[in-house]
Amino acid sequence: MTSPSLITTPFGATSTADDVLGGVDLTGTRAVVTGASSGLGRETARALASVGAEVTMAVRNIAAGNEVAAEIARSTGRARPRVEHLDLADPSSVAAFVKEWTGPLDLLINNAGLVTGGLERTPEGWELQFATNHLGHFALATRLRPALAAAAASARGGARIVALSSTAHMRANIDFDDIHFDRRAYDPQIAYAQAKTANALFAVEASRLWEADGIVANAVNPGGIATGLQRNFTAQQKQSLEAAEAAGLFTYKTIAQGAATTMVAAVSPEFAHVGARYLDDGREAYTVPNDATLSDNPPRRQGMGARPGGGRTALARQPRNARRLRPRSIRPGAPQTKTTDFRGGCRCETRFATHNATIPVVSVDGGGPQLRSRRAVRPEGSR
To answer: Domains plus CATH for the chain?
Structure first.
């Protein structure tokens, strides 16, 4: 299955973040990058800062973030990025981050990622990969919507959200009957795939709801990159990855190459006013059947014009699927006892019944629920 009129750019699988930013001046552009203390997030923050963007690194480890920020300033000769604490699985952390934010926001890069080797849950009972990779970023973007809208209304015009997904999304759709693995057997690879499908669907729904505000959201597949994300892999996960590489189903990219597609979604004029797309190797990816696997769609990277591997499943771009996910992102557990307007700046107290407790949440500027999780050691800035 292919998609007509796919958006292309001059960039491909071997392009780097600096290649994409060649000749670009982002002076005055304000950007937030989650998971920016290592891996892809670190390179994304560096690349944006190198062309003048005012970057805020949203990290769990402040000490590590400060070290990276200092190195970015030294290596680029540009202003030192701000470093702010953000734990996507902690409601008070997300709320505090947004509370401290002032002024417009031009770019939100939802980069941070988590892989677990086994079933882990938040205190509310939510599966940790879905809670961190999707629900945390969903809540952050929703709460920052007024800042993004303010940037879109400025003379610069337009605000963008980039959600990092993965080719792994082809392994699983959203299991709406059992998102958090309460009844089905747990497979960490399926859990990761479900979260990456959710990232792609978020871009579809956010673009639909926020288009009138001048906000566009696109999902990207950075490709296979060796980062801290793999440190929690089980032996089975590592073997699966090694087998795929040996079969030629993917070729590892450098971190600089991995960050390139994020930069395309963030700054390329082709995506300035176009949302709900899924990018792979620097251009819009084609659509594949829902039962497709990576082996069905191997990469074809012999030249800059070659078709990228992977693609996006039909379910990961389906508006109906995206609309169905939205209320489950606002209310991950049982239904709300009060109604919150996701789209408009209401301020109301809502109580969310979850697996383990009923949690009071203050919903500010249309924000959805936030998450509280135990402080597990988790990699930042990786896919």
So the answer is: 17-335 (3.40.50.720)
